[in-house]
Prior knowledge:
By secondary structure, this protein is α/β, with parallel strands linked by helices. The chain contains eight helices and ten strands.
Amino acid sequence: MLEVRNVSKAFGGKTILRDLSLGIGTGEIVSVLGPSGSGKTTLLNLILGLTRPDSGRILYDGEDLTDVPAERRRFNIVFQDYALFPNLDARANILYGLRNHPGASSAAEVDALVDLLGLREHLGKRIDQLSGGQRQRVALARTLVLKPRVLLLDEPLSALDGVIKESIKARIRQIAREFRLTTLIVTHDPEEALTLADRVLVLEGGGIAQYARPAELIGRPANGFVKAFILRQLEIKRENILALFQAARA
Length: 250
């Protein structure tokens, strides 16, 4: 279990997170949702170990990781832009991390992961020959061969559309279940958060506005901010989709 206990963080005298506590179970998918400046990225960096909290603790299965360097936590992230090496093909990108951790996955385990993510036919392709969805799957494979204890995804679906987005969502859910992988997803999209996660953490001004299952969040929003934020963002998304549809017909 991943635990954040009473964590606070400030930069330049401005409080970004204040006395924040939450727990994420093994194999659970949690989406972190909130407006710009609510502390989403700071929380992700604290969990990764890229930033140290001013107060509070980060624990995994009871072990205090607050002062443990990022490279020793075995928490890995897939960035929004995938951060793949353009000079390497898909196979070399997937295997890259094993250079420094050669025993992390066997050849058979790598093959199984390639098949799970549907990448077999794309292994010899350059990165610029891959679609957005294929690049996302390569980035996931490159991270998963290292067998992280916690997987963090930063806006993983923002560059994807339609069927491709739904396919990646399904694969993320499958991976979390099969590997019992604690998964934390940072997003600005309520629809994405509500349809992908087991629980959703809504941040407001550095604190927790609500931490609940999607059905509870929709049916019983904790306060006016949660209700207004989710409904407003979903309405904006509907308006954008309608505008695109009308433009296509013009």
